Amino acid sequence: VYTGNAFCNSVHFDPASGTLFIRVERLDSVGEYALVLAHALAHVHVGSMVSDTDPRFVAEFHACIQVLGEDVFAQRGPAQADALHQQLASLRTAQDRDAAVVSAANFKL
Known about the structure:
This protein has about 110 residues and is mainly alpha-helical. The protein is about 50% helix and about 5% strand. It contains 4 helices and 2 strands; from the N terminus they run ββαααα. It has helices spanning about 30-45, 55-75, 80-90, 95-100; strands spanning about 10-15, 20. Strands 1-2 form a two-stranded antiparallel ribbon. A hairpin with a 4-residue loop joins strand 1 and strand 2 (about 20). Helix 1 runs antiparallel to helix 2 and helix 2 (about 55-75) packs across helix 3. The longest helix has 22 residues, at about 55-75. It is elongated and about 45 Å long.
């Protein structure tokens, strides 16, 4: 049992074989599967399947999510990725970025 792991009932990692097992129900949605996989791989990478609050896990999980996000926009084409980058770059302060709302009409995922 992975205490403190949001997906403790959905994953199991066997370090002896290096095998990650994921509950089959998590495969129903590609988005859910990607989230569970990124979450589990971040835990595997830091060597601990417990505690989602471990700073090493949090940093690794954020890096995994960043890679997934970059891949999603790369798949949508450079024009959409460039448009999002320009929109974000035009926001002058962190407060502006935090308050920004990206319209679903502008960016179809």
